[in-house]
Design goal:
The structure holds two protein chains of two kinds.
Chain A: H1 2-35, H2 41-56, H3 61-69, H4 82-102, H5 108-124, H6 131-164, H7 177-210, H8 222-246, H9 256-275, H10 282-295, E1 300-302, H11 304-332, H12 336-359, H13 369-375, E2 378-380
Antiparallel strand pairs in A: 1-2
Chain B: H1 4-34, H2 55-70, H3 76-104, H4 106-111
Helix pairs in contact in B: 1-3
The chains are: A mainly alpha, B mainly alpha.
């Protein structure tokens, strides 16, 4: 009886995590087209929600990485318990809460992995974790994906500007990229759904495997895919309204051509990674693209201090969430009372997040995303003149 | 064991996809401008949100674009060709994006 209760509890918590992910990340996809006026806010949010829903159905590779790769299951491995997964989730949520309060850039995806790994380490020790999978599918993608996205966005921005540049001073028509942004930001929303919703699917599948409801190594069930898709779409939709209220107060200077290049790069990087089962942070990829595309504009200079602060926040997430997950797991291993204590902590933290978000409804600092923040890492001179001149 | 090839694959395919989409779209805009139809996109709402064009600015931009279009050395036929080229580019850009999605979704392979 207790076993089923804990399973239900884990699934509920995982879905809540999924919901907050959508809630928090709408800004990543839709802040730019809303800000440059490419899309009306209501339309933008609705598109983002629908495409997140669709995206969740497109692939299960990332879910398999989480449910079948990171933690060794089956005969030669260990059998992770729902209690430990529960502890991992609590750890992730608590760390997310702390980073939100402190305004640190973070990644809810890495918080999730960190929490889970920390909990498994406490429960079973080092042999529980398949470190080669952690390294090749979580840690390395975490480092490489933003760099990849940045490099691609830099190239794409250079291209977009070079192709549309006119040395004779006639209108260059770069306004037209606003229409393009409608599509590129839609692609980002789709990519977000494919990668992020799958993380929750992976957690729920891992739980079901751990209690023997599903064979080891199997992919997510259809109902799991459906509920995760709905949770992230709902979160996106609800989160969007907050962004609409807070928009217009603090967005970095992203031009349509640049935004188009950055978003295309983000979507392409996430989709390609998803296909290979890399569970990466969509926020970090989007940030990498924004910085890369900023560097692709003439007269740009990187503010290494800001970029460094963002980078440190990223590096911190995995180990810090790991510690949180480990602590929660220590409590959870006491027994039923430990689970109750964890639940209470979780409820307190979740209501804390909720209250905090209500209080800050009108400020943009914690809503309009780390992606917009990362734009501040590149300084761009106002309208530098093109170097090449055409004889009159 | 780290599959380095996978990372190169991600970089390569994402770079290719982005370059194709951005290049065709940018070319489309270039050709559209050449054909005398410079896109002026007035934001629907939030006209005060930082980098957005104000209605007055948009009007001025439209005027400049029309003036530039009048002075264009191209013949009517060349302009029409540029416009067709622009539309082809936009379609190619969209098609490239859709093809990319098709490639990574196994479910679709059975349907088409």
């Amino acid at each position: 009886m207790e076993l089923t209760l804990i399973v239900v509890l884990v699934i509920a918590l995982a879905l809540f995590f999924d919901f907050t992910n959508g809630f928090h990340d709408t800004a990543n996809a839709m802040a730019t087209p809303i800000a440059t006026g490419a899309l009306r806010p209501k339309v933008a949010v609705a598109i983002a929600a629908i495409l997140n829903l669709v995206g969740a159905f497109l692939s299960t590779e990332v879910a398999r990485t989480i449910s079948g790769g990171i933690i060794k299951e089956g005969d030669d491995g260990v059998l992770i318990t729902p209690q430990l997964i529960f502890a991992g989730l609590i750890g992730a949520i608590v760390w997310n809460m702390i980073t939100w309060l402190l305004g640190l850039p973070s990644s809810s995806s890495h918080a999730l992995f960190g929490g889970l790994i920390g909990a498994a380490l406490v429960g079973f020790g080092v042999q529980a974790i398949d470190f080669s999978v952690v390294l090749s599918k979580v840690v390395l993608p975490a480092v490489l994906a933003p760099l990849t996205a940045g490099l691609i966005a830099y190239t794409a921005t250079k291209l977009a500007y070079a192709i549309t540049r006119r040395y004779d001073g006639k209108p260059d028509g770069r306004d037209g990229f606003r229409h393009g942004q409608i599509f590129s930001s839609s692609l980002v929303a789709l990519a977000h759904g494919t990668n992020d919703a799958q993380k929750t699917m992976g957690i729920i599948t891992l739980t079901l495997i751990s209690v023997g409801l599903q064979p080891v190594g199997s992919g997510p069930e259809t109902w799991v895919v459906v509920v995760c898709a709905v949770a992230i779409a709902l979160g996106t939709y609800m989160g969007g309204w907050r962004i609409i209220k807070t928009l217009g107060t603090g967005l970095t200077d992203v031009k349509p051509a640049q935004g188009f290049a950055a978003e295309t790069s983000t979507a392409a990087t996430i989709l390609a990674s998803t296909h290979l089962g890399f569970a990466l942070s969509t926020t970090q990829v989007a940030s990498g693209s924004v910085i890369g595309s900023g560097m692709g504009r003439r007269g740009s200079k990187v503010r290494w201090r800001t970029a460094g602060r963002i980078g440190v926040g990223w590096l911190l997430t995995l180990p810090a969430a790991g510690i949180m997950g480990a602590l929660a797991a220590l409590v959870a291993t006491i027994g039923p009372i430990g689970i109750i204590i964890d639940t209470i902590i979780g409820v307190v933290v979740i209501s804390g997040i909720f209250l905090w978000s209500r209080r800050n409804e009108v400020s943009s600092s914690n809503v309009v995303s780390e992606v917009a923040d990362s734009g501040a890492a590149v300084k761009i001179k106002r309208n530098p003149k093109p170097k090449k001149k055409v004889a009159p | 064991m780290i599959d380095w090839f996978a990372f190169i694959l991600v970089l390569g395919s994402a770079l290719l996809a982005t370059v194709v989409v951005v290049t065709t779209y940018s070319l489309g805009i270039r050709l559209l401008t050449v054909s005398g139809r410079t896109p002026i996109v007035t934001p629907a709402e939030f006209t005060d949100a930082i980098t957005v064009v104000s209605p007055a600015e948009a009007k001025a931009a439209a005027k400049r674009a029309a003036k530039a279009a009048r002075k264009s050395p191209l013949s009517a036929g060349q302009k029409r060709a540029a416009l067709i080229g622009a539309r082809v580019c936009f379609v190619l850009s969209g098609a490239a994006a859709l093809f990319g999605i098709y490639l990574i979704v196994p479910v679709l392979h059975g349907l088409v």
